[in-house]
Each structure stands twice: as structure tokens, then as C-alpha cells.
Amino acid sequence: MTTANTDGSALRLLSTILTHFDSLDAFLTQLHHELDGPTQILPRIDPDAAPTPHANRPPIPRISIGGAGRHARRDTRTPR
User: Fold this and answer.
1) Are 30 and 24 in contact (CB under 8 A)?
2) Packed helices 24-36 and 6-20: angle between N→C axes, nearest 10 degrees
3) What's the CA angle centered on 29, arms 27 and 31, to 5 degrees?
């Protein structure tokens, strides 16, 4: 658990809340109102009926770079 910026983060959160609400009690009242309210149930998406994105685009061809490939950290210079 990191506690280095806890005090600063808490003060920023409190400052943001008080900027948007008249008081901390008003924020808590609104929070409880939204959490206690009914949940909006979203319609279920059937994966078999969902359209395939970008179906008309051809696939990107793979480019072969050799057997082992290259790595940015691999030293490719020959030793002296």
C-alpha cells in the first residue's frame, strides 16, 4: 500500500467535491441517492448476431524477419 501522496490526494478529492457541491453533506446525499436508486439494466448483446467490425478490410499480411527475429537490446555487433 502506497501512502506517499495520500494526504495530497485526499485534499484534492475534498477540494473537487466542494467545488461541485455546496458541502460534503450535499455530496454524500447525492451519492446515496444515486447508489440507492434503481439500476438500469442494459440489453444483452448476442455475440452471434453482432456485426464483425471492419469485415470489408483485408487482413494485414505478416512480414517475415528471419528465424530468430531481432530484439532492440540484443547486441548485433561482432565481438573484437
Assistant:
1) no
2) 80
3) 70
The whole-angstrom distance between residue 69's C-alpha and the CA centroid of its chain comes to 31
Report the alpha-carbon distance of residue 13 to residue 52 in Å, rounded: 41
In tens digits, the chain (80 residues) has pLDDT values of 445 556 689 899 999 999 999 999 999 999 999 888 888 888 887 877 766 666 677 777 777 666 665 555 555 556 55
30 and 21 Cβ atoms separated by less than 8 Å: yes
CA distance 8 to 14: 10
Helix, strand, or coil (residue 35): helix
Give Rg (Cα) of the chain: 27
